[in-house]
Amino acid sequence: MLKTGVSPNEVTVVAIISACGHIGALESGRWVHSYIQNNGIETNAHVGTALVDMYSKCGSLKDARLVFERIRNKDVVVWNSMIVGYATHGFSKDAMHLFNEMCRIGYRPTDITFIGILSACGHAGLVSEGWQFFHLMKDEYGIEPKIEHYGCMVNLFGRAGHLKEAYELVKNMEINPDPVLWGTLLGACRLHGNLALGEEIAEFLINQNLANSGTYILLSNIYAAGGNWEGVARMRTLLKDSGIEKEPGCSSIEVSNKVHEFFAGDLRHPKTKEIYMMLEEMEGWLKAHGYTPQTEIVLHDLSDVEKEQSLKVHSEKLAIAFGLISTKQGATIKIVKNLRVCADCHAVTKLISKITGRKILMRDRNRFHHFMNGLCSCGDYW
User: Fold this and answer.
1) Could you tell me if 161 and 236 lie in one domain?
2) What domain of life does the native source organism fall in (predicted)?
3) Which of 120, 181, 203, 376 has a CA between 20 and 30 Å from the CA of residue 367?
4) What is the extent of the structural domain holding 149?
5) CA distance 226 to 193
């Protein structure tokens, strides 16, 4: 477009900025932002919202906040974007402070505002505050809860271990819960080791033809945690017989203004040899630190050795290996994953952050994970 002499307008730059945010291309997004500033395109509320959203999705809340502060005529959408950005990263106090400031000035919250603030409460484990906001949304602002609001509440209850309350909320919803909502509840059952409730939910989903691949995997994980290997085998068989295809995991990482994409077992990258050599080196580090592969999460009918090999080449591990060989020592590694990061990759990424002294920032389907010194900002609940 630029080569042909056609100048982009507001609609063009918003579309490009949004695309950069979707794939986590921070440096490309910064280039577009610089182009906007140098070519007289106004950073109005529309463009500003796109920039705030892009920087948040690319892991740079500092840049997102700078853009937010410089937007002169903010509307509620701008405020929402910043609140949701803080919430997605787990910066709950900042999200709640911004919500209070927004209301104080006189902006009226929308359904998106409450998705952000309820999510923030969930990350911080603020159960009573979350309930207050949920009722405030309905009673004071007349906003009927959507599936996303219920999802935030189930996540909030689940994180706090209030599984009975979460289950009752789902059963009494005025709208039909979707597989993502059920998956959130199953994930909470896995975390807290509630096999009975996990079985009840999973069996209901399977019998109602509402199960997806994640349903079988989560219940298998619950069985494995309780040492019920017959249950694990049954889930493997049911998943195979169901014919459900698992969405392939894909992880991307931006290096030198170029986005590199990996699938599990990928051999397409020009630096495949170096990447797999780094994987071998990583495996040595991990074993030296007591790591044991979580083979129970692999539902394919494979031997234990084959399961370990399958885990070893997950897309996020390939992206991390590429990041380690392609960035300067000490640089933050930023990864975008299209699905929820699995338990094994989560454990590995924590250890790699400790061993290498690197910060690893990973955006998965649910949230941002800030890995530092062997810990994750999600508190191992995601």
Assistant:
1) yes
2) Eukaryota
3) 203
4) 74-242
5) 7
Spell out the per-residue pLDDT of the chain, length 382, in tens: 766 766 778 899 999 999 999 999 999 999 999 999 999 888 899 999 999 999 999 999 999 999 999 999 999 999 999 999 999 999 999 999 999 999 999 999 999 999 999 999 998 889 999 999 999 999 999 999 999 999 999 999 998 999 999 999 998 898 988 878 888 898 888 888 888 898 888 888 888 888 887 788 888 878 877 778 888 888 878 887 887 777 788 999 999 989 999 999 999 999 999 999 999 999 999 999 999 887 766 656 566 666 778 888 999 999 999 999 999 999 999 999 998 898 899 999 999 999 999 999 999 988 899 999 999 998 887 7
Sign of the CA dihedral 199, 184, 344, 338?
positive
- Same domain, residue pair 207 and 79: yes
How many other C-beta atoms are found inside a 10 Å radius of the C-beta of residue 5? 6
Same domain, 213 and 101: yes
Note the pTM of the prediction, 2 decimals: 0.84
